[in-house]
Amino acid sequence: MEVARDRTALSRQALSRPWRLAIADGLVREDASLFDYGCGKGDDLRLLMAQGLVANGWDPNHRPDTELRPSAVVNLGYVINVIEAPAERAETLQSAWKLAGRLLIVAARMTGEERDLAQRTRLADGILTSRNTFQKFYEQQELKHWIEKVLGAEAIAAGPGIFYVFRDADAGEAYRSAKTRRRIAAPSLTLSEQRCREHPALVDGLIRFYTERARLPEPDELAESEVIARVFGSIKRAFQAILRTNAEVDWGQIIAARREDLLLYLALSRFERGMRWSKLSEPLRRDVRALFGTYAAAQRQAEALLLQLGQPGAVDAAVSAATVGKTTPTAIYVHLSALEQLPLLLRAFAGCGHGYLGAVEGATLIKIYRREPKLSYLAYPDFDRDPHPALDFSFNIDLRELRLKRRWFKGQPNPPVLHRKECFVAEGYPRRATFARLTKAEEAAGLLEATDRIGLRRGWEAVLNENGFTLAGHRLIRVPQTGVSASPTKAT
Ligand SMILES: C[S@@+](CC[C@H](N)C(=O)[O-])C[C@H]1O[C@@H](n2cnc3c(N)ncnc32)[C@H](O)[C@@H]1O
After folding, report:
1. How far is the CA of 5 from the centre of ligand 1 (A)?
2. Burial category of 339 from C-beta neighbours within 10 Å (exposed 0-12, middle 13-18, buried 19 and up)
3. Domain's final residue, options 202, 220, 248
4. pLDDT tens digits for range 319-350
């Protein structure tokens, strides 16, 4: 009996994960042509077009008559895993790659997901389901290596089971380095010097460039270079004028932050394809020269960082030195929005996880172990709204074994819950003060003392109950004695 490939196509109400990720990563520009290779029933196409994007798609079973069109971005989403013949899988990947002008997205189902399928028998390197469809489940590294072997191009992890292959290696590098760069708001400046005041747009452009790269632009890197040179004499002079009029800005901090970002990028690149100078794009070479003097010096520091990662006690010490995140005797937990504020070594540790798995959609916290090469992504979908959010799922990565373990808690009656939410986020996080106020009230009421009981939802609810409290949003309320109405405790 033939395998029923056509039956694998789902109806989708929301965009599939690969398209969502590529859009979130800024890789789908409004004017770009998009192509969905193996588009199934075409729901992604409909949803992309509803966003005003130009999308086409082909599917041998559901849309066989569409023309196979070369396009800027091509998605091969959950197709290779339904093909039972390995040779045909490779041909399909190559055909999709041929169409991709700028970017190919490849997504496949992952080991662990087969548990969702009832009744199955083994077939080739996958399984035959009760619906007579074939499914092959991939390990993250297996998928990466296979794509790279078939296409001879680097596959960059974008998320679990999802990889990007860029046509132009520089674009891939730009994508990866952007992922290791923190966001720094350009300083808002008071411009006193005459020319600065007369040409705010020129000055702004220069400041923005400097904030981005912590160095001055070469003439070909800034559209306004020529005008700046005409007005101020040179770019250097323009910047000196900016420095003179803005002595209060900590420019050194910008340089230190960007040096760290670049070092992190160079260190993490070693895992991908070495750190050959010839592989660096011209802007990055300029960054290296400006921030490290020579490439050899940058390499030495990147290597030292990696070596340090493997030193016993180094991660543990970095966890103890962290000024953000909640530390326990075995690990540190940090909200993903605060990751950039961790010590460099921990960012490198987290970067290894990202290089392996890409972004984990829905993840809220990252957990870095002090004494084991392990980290976890933890998803708390109601982190902001729920005073004690429940864990939805966790992805646990063993970086030495390159193994991934997933655990699902969604829908379970007694999932782990969080306390002291303000500890996970950085200053400036919305409602951090509200989280902290609740913690204070809970501490004052003695509710956080029974640490062995409050980690799971039922235990926590029992502790609240036994002490005569309930919660209304982020307010702790004493449950009224009969005849008395509920009132917030003093500390809320
Ligand atoms: C699980 S569906 C995925 C559909 C769509 N990409 C999505 O994510 O919703 C797999 C699709 O791959 C298609 N397919 C099977 N063999 C193929 C091949 N050799 N080339 C392209 N598509 C193929 C099937 O017809 C099916 O629609």
Report:
1. 7
2. buried
3. 248
4. 999 999 999 999 999 999 999 999 999 999 99
Same domain, 144 and 210: no
126: β partners: 123
Residue 476: in which H helix or E strand, if any? Answer: strand 475-478
Nearest 10 degrees: Cα torsion 298, 299, 300, 303: 120
Q: Are residues 158 and 216 in the same domain?
A: no
Tens-digit pLDDT profile for residues 254-313? 888 999 999 999 888 876 656 678 878 899 999 999 999 999 999 999 999 999 988 999
> In terms of residue numbers, what domain contains 333?
316-408
Concatenating the DSSP letter of every residue in 100-121 gives: EEEEEEEE--BTTGGGG--SEE
Provide residues with CB under 6 Å of ligand 1.
Answer: 5-6, 8-10, 12, 16, 37-40, 44, 59-62, 77-79, 82-83, 88, 92
Q: Is 189's pLDDT higher than 70?
A: no
Q: How far is the CA of 81 from the centre of ligand 1 (A)?
A: 9
Whether residues 440 and 330 share a domain: the answer is no
Q: Contact at 8 Å (CB) between 340 and 382?
A: no
351 contacts 271 by C-beta, under 8 angstroms: no
Which residue's CA is minimally distant from atom 10 of ligand 1? 79
Q: Which atom of ligand 1 is nearest to the CA of 40?
A: 27
* Pair (381, 472) in one structural domain: no
Statement to judge: residues 238 and 328 lie in one domain: no
Residue 257's contacts (CB-CB under 8 Å, 6 or more residues apart) are 182, 184, 214
The residue nearest atom 4 of ligand 1, judged by CA position, is 40
Question: Is residue 79 classed exposed, middle or buried when 0-12, 13-18 and 19+ CB atoms within 10 A define those classes?
Answer: buried
